[in-house]
């Protein structure tokens, strides 16, 4: 193995502070800047014990041996990368086990080393951290997107058990972005887009500003290089013209603090490029319209001093109305606290002032990582830790409700961009939601059970609809009912990932329960035709068939039958002892006419029984049905042309009939031709409503200068109900002709 010290040079870490207000954001270190492993160990002496540093060095030797012979795209030894990742985390003062896991984070994925070997060489905790960061490389996926989603899902779920998993991954991604220039252009764009969509927002969600800003600027540089170049040139012109103004403001603020006897640090800075670009994009503004590109941070000792300084700066410069935010009283979702105010500075230039304490500044830079940085000191990080724990709990709930890893990742992306509103529960608890959130989003933010059973709400003691968009400062009271359940239409207006995942998860479970109920009826009907009851079947025979059919239990089998994935006729014959073999599609070669027993359609079967739009059957119509795999049963009128075209696929046909007393209302269409007359539509609609039918839709089409055809989609209870409506409409003198559609 090469000498440890010889190969342990790594790119220098980016400094954590920037001093000059107009200093361009640095997105990479000079290529020749290197640290020795001895430098890193010396740095660790500032907060780790000698025993911990010795263990860290042993892990370095283990990793160097595991990666021996491997090189990065840049041509340098691979061990450079994990040591650089450990350096980034060391600057955040992470514990030694996290640093060891950073050194070893690629050994499971890229070397023959197994997780069990890490357990033996180190311990279970370190092995779990390394495994959490490792990709799912041993499974074949249908697409790159699916593989990426599955790996990210694994990492995020590992993060819910130990937040250090994501901290290692963020440091890993940061160093990869710093060295991304060695990759092909298409790879650069793909990786930088993923960084901007997932990893930078995660860093922001956890309050780790030092990593978030650099990830955003690096992602911006590689994903939109030309846009960044143009924006940087425009910004340099502005900085050159206003460099004197920046110095004047800094001097004025320092002098004002000194006169009031307030000790504080004033630091001017230019906002980073990607932040300016994002504001231009989101608010659809040109660069000349983005006026507050300079920010001045004032750091003081105590919270009450922050508010004193706020009054002081408002006395110096005129504040811009509506541009003050108090994040001390109401912190951001990532625990960030500060006072923000936009002022009109010299030469009419808008400047942003941020006022915070030293603890708030450390929290702004390190976020949740401050829990490890200061857990043995006096600094309190309970706020950020609690907020992060709440978010991780939301991730677990979204994972339980999501159907697959791609859907889970979509929910996470929604949740990572919260342009926030702050609202209150009736007991005064503050909830932070994404801008545009509705009452339903609020209900799910409280608890999934509250969201699933909500029926109404009050905002500031006034009744509102569930789709009402919330505004900051409102107090919301949710009204629930025991029998209530989510509506699929809610998906049209909810904006938070938790609400969307909760609704979809409930509807999927509801569909499965409805499928099981329908499957039980279908199988029961077929068994009854064979002279057997489902309850009387031998459990051993049922278990044998379930094993043969690769079903976990009877409910899963019944659900498959209800969804049309497996035919009840075949299952019934096998359960009673038929030797008939199943074909490749899971359907038997039987004649459906042998079994005249019909399934009764009630209209209340839910999502697993649907009514074809091509013919719109209603109770009283002769009907037949087709199995649609994954959807269940689709009911047609017997004379429907689409039904006849599938006559050859007899294994999909199902004999059905209407129940003696169908329940519910069924959509059907009628065409009413009327003479052109003022108020004719209102007259026709009034008759339809008077006879107890709701109009779902109406479309008018002028046939000639004298007549108009009105096509209504109405809800009726039966064919008799429809006949009553049509008979009554024919009695109107303005009605020339009326027909049912489709005929």
Short description:
The protein has 743 residues and is an alpha+beta fold. Strand 8 and strand 9 (430-434) form a beta hairpin.
Low-confidence stretches: 1-34, 136-142, 373-382, 579-596
Q: Largest beta sheet, briefly?
A: 5 strands, mixed
Mean pLDDT: 77
Enumerate the strands of the largest sheet in spatial order, edge to edge or round the barrel.
3-4-7-6-5
* Total domain modules: 5
Tell me what the CATH architecture of the largest domain is: Orthogonal Bundle
CATH class value of the largest domain: Mainly Alpha
The amount of beta strand, in percent, is 15-25%
Instruction: Note the overall shape.
Output: globular
SSE topology sketch:
Blueprint lengths: L3 H4 L2 E2 L22 E2 L1 H8 L5 H17 L13 H12 L4 H8 L3 H4 L4 H7 L2 H10 L10 H18 L2 H15 L6 H21 L3 H15 L1 H35 L5 E6 L2 H11 L10 E7 L2 H14 L1 E9 L12 E6 L5 E8 H9 L3 H4 L8 H20 L3 H11 L4 E5 L5 E5 L4 H8 L1 H6 E6 L2 E3 L11 E5 L16 H33 L9 H10 L5 H9 L5 H8 L23 E3 L7 E3 L11 E6 L3 E6 L3 H5 L7 E2 L1 E3 L7 E10 L4 H11 L4 E8 L4 E10 L2 H12 L4 E7 L2
Parallel strand pairs: 4-7, 13-18, 14-16
Antiparallel strand pairs: 1-2, 3-4, 5-6, 6-7, 8-9, 10-11, 10-12, 15-16, 15-17, 19-21, 19-22, 20-21
Helix pairs in contact: 3-5, 4-5, 4-10, 5-8, 5-10, 7-8, 8-9, 8-10, 9-18, 9-19, 10-11, 10-12, 11-12, 12-13, 18-19, 18-22, 19-22, 20-22, 22-24, 22-25
